[in-house]
Amino acid sequence: MTDATQSDTAFRPKPSLPPPANTVGVVGWLRKNLFGGPIDTILTLLGVYLLYLIVQFAVEYGIINAVWTADTYRECLDINLGEGACWAGIGAWFNSMMYGRYPDEEQWRVNLGGIILLLWLIPFWLPKVTGKIQVGMSAVLTFPFLAASMFIGGDTGIFLHVMASIALTLFVAVWLHVAACYVLGRSLPELLISITGFTDKDDRLHKYVLLGAFAVGFVIALIYHMSWDLVEVQTTIWGGLFLTLVISGIGIASALPNGILLALGRRSKMPVIRVFCTSFIELFRSVPLITILFMAVTMMPLFLPVEFNPPKLAMVIVAVCIFAAAYMAETVRGGLQAVNKGQYEAAQSMGLSFWKMMALIVMPQALKLMIPNIVGSFMGLMKDTTLVSIIGLYDILLMGKAAGQNPSWLGFHTEPLLFTASIFFVLCFAMSKYSQHLERTIGGGYGRR
Amino acid sequence: MKKVSLLALGAGFLASLAITPEPVLAQDSTLEIVKNRGILRCQVGTPAPGFYSLSDDGKWSGFDVENCRAVSAAIFGDPDKIEYQSVTSAVRFTAMANGESDVLSRTTTWTLFRDTQLGLDFTTVNFYDGQGFMVTNDSGVTSALELAGATVCVLTGTTTELNLTDYSRTNSLDINPVVFEDSNVRDSTFFSGGCDAITNDKSSLASTRAKAPDQSIFTILPQTISKEPLGPVVRQNDSQWNDIVMWSLFAMINAEEMGINSGNVDEMKASSTNPEIKRMLGVEGDLNKGLGLEPEWAYNIIKTVGNYAENYEEFMGPKTVMNIPRAGSVNDLWTKGGLMYSPPFR
């Protein structure tokens, strides 16, 4: 029996014809999606025309008629009669919109702080690094103190010295850990223990070794930090995008932990905690953010002794944190309620304590569900921080408005708004993209569908 | 009911906070506080061209900023020991009441209500403003009384709007106000012909005109339909501090009248024989005693900040974008037909 004879006699269908030329390729796609019928065609043509108008205007306003070098807005007007953008002004005001009134020669401190934070967070994206939660915790808990000592400068006081030194030690440790993970494939603690020869010893001794290593690092960092001699920059002159990021950054970093605690408190069976958390959430969620800011900045000093005069920025940050926590609490509670009751009961029947049940069983499931909502709140918070301009903090939006009121730049108000809008778009879009990435990677069964 | 009693307790607590009387400030006088702090806290507004504006290197400057610099020079001999506070007009008086600012110097109109019911004292006037109209030259309008039936661009929720309707009714002009929330939108509407005229304080009209692509086609009409005397404000019940701020301004006005400016003040101090100049510059007498300042306080103001005319030229005069002529206006010296008048230094 040969294949050849069989194939000769077997029924062989004709090879199918290629699909009609107008249903495949570019033409087919166009017909299917854009010109499916008379209404589709009209809508497509209208859409293309609108797009043409928008693009034409944008190109004319933003590129063809734009002025790139000028010393005053009047010079721009003389060149383009207001028909195009005056990007020269953005150049002149760029530093102000980024750093507010922070002195030019000290701005490297802000940049360096930002770079340290980025470096601290990079290990999150490195697949081989272990202990990402610890890395994240170290950044969230100690970086603000390091940043404060760098950005404010001057005589920081012993508390900030200590906290900033802890932060420096941990920062160096994180990167030693990353190096260890990549070069030797072991975590930093393992490496330290094996170097000192305690591998075979009791676990308790391991702890002492790590603590000892940390103490040595801390002392070196403290001596180094004490030697810093930075000019004091009062928080009253902070501004621009830097200020926006400081306020929203601290608000965002504190919102999730505080929100989780408040949400758990609200679902607690202990009446005092439940009543406290519920009233806290309801009180701050039902008042506009601007009211809370007003209370914090203009009303609070009336009730405080004159000697106790906390900086405005500190009050604003506390107010934003409270507000963000109240909103986040309800997002988290929604996530908690979406977790099946069986999960709680299963955890309890395993004999887990409340905190273990929450940390190991419930929260990991709930947080996955909440990612879109959490990121939505963060983006909202970041944009809400522009309200601080009303109480006289020169964030990026108010700085942009101030630019147009300078006698040399009178009338310069569209360009700063466009610039600010594009910065907010980039920041928020990046957050949105990152949340989608998180949903895909840690979402598991609940991931993006 | 437990919940009710808890609520009542909370409400009672809030109420007790709300009815706390006058803010309790330390017993020290403002001068003592400022001297101890080593820095003057001066409140300006969100930037307004001419009066207070922010440069791209973060410095405040302007006509009202000079008041603060004068006070700083009088106290410290250095015009720049100032922490500027810039808040929106909604919270300007609260920021004074809660002790945040030492002096408020920001285009604030002196009215009876504000002087008597806000716990504040107006010192004196450094700029007489007033509401006016601006039209295009093409319209042929030369007087506000010719604006019958015209559409006028105006900011909403301000006394400007009220003044406009009052003026329209009194003179039966039947003006149609077109109201705006944002001054930039109002200005561009006016430039593109959206209304026949625009109304605001004349100093603001000057800055609106400065924004226009072609400034020469606009005219500010001569009529002034409201009185807006602007000047620095201090907290009530500290008359020494009130005196310091007020006389710092008078020193600048009097210096102009006496012909002293930042250029010739050293010469005047050394060689002038005029007894009033000698008293003012601290060569003779002890006029500084009552103010609690150094004898050379007025000299320091004139040397570092300048006299009234110098400041006017720098921020409002014809060489600036504001271009508000001073000669013959109410802001000229009393000797030239204006209202700028300093009590004598004796």
Automatic annotation (TrEMBL), chain A:
It is found in: Cell inner membrane; Cell membrane. GO terms for molecular function: transmembrane transporter activity. Coiled coil: none annotated. InterPro entries: AA_ABC_transptr_permease_3TM (IPR010065), ArtM/GltK/GlnP/TcyL/YhdX-like (IPR043429), MetI-like (IPR000515), MetI-like_sf (IPR035906). It is a multi-pass membrane protein. Keywords: Cell membrane, Membrane, Transmembrane, Transmembrane helix, Transport. GO terms for cellular component: ATP-binding cassette (ABC) transporter complex. Pfam families: BPD_transp_1. The chain crosses the membrane at residues 41-64, 108-126, 133-152, 158-184, 205-225, 237-265, 286-306, 312-329, 416-434. Residues 241-435 form the ABC transmembrane type-1 domain. One of its GO terms (biological process) is amino acid transport. Belongs to the binding-protein-dependent transport system permease family. HisMQ subfamily. This is Amino acid ABC transporter membrane protein 2, PAAT family (TC 3.A.1.3.-). It comes from Thalassobaculum litoreum DSM 18839.
UniProtKB/TrEMBL annotation, chain B:
InterPro entries: Bact_solute-bind_prot3 (IPR051455), Solute-binding_3/MltF_N (IPR001638). Residues 1-26 form the signal peptide. GO terms for biological process: amino acid transport. It comes from the Bacteria. Residues 39-268 form the Solute-binding protein family 3/N-terminal domain. CDD domains: PBP2_BztA. Keywords: Signal, Transport. It holds the Pfam family SBP_bac_3. Belongs to the bacterial solute-binding protein 3 family. This is Amino acid ABC transporter substrate-binding protein, PAAT family. It comes from Thalassobaculum litoreum DSM 18839.
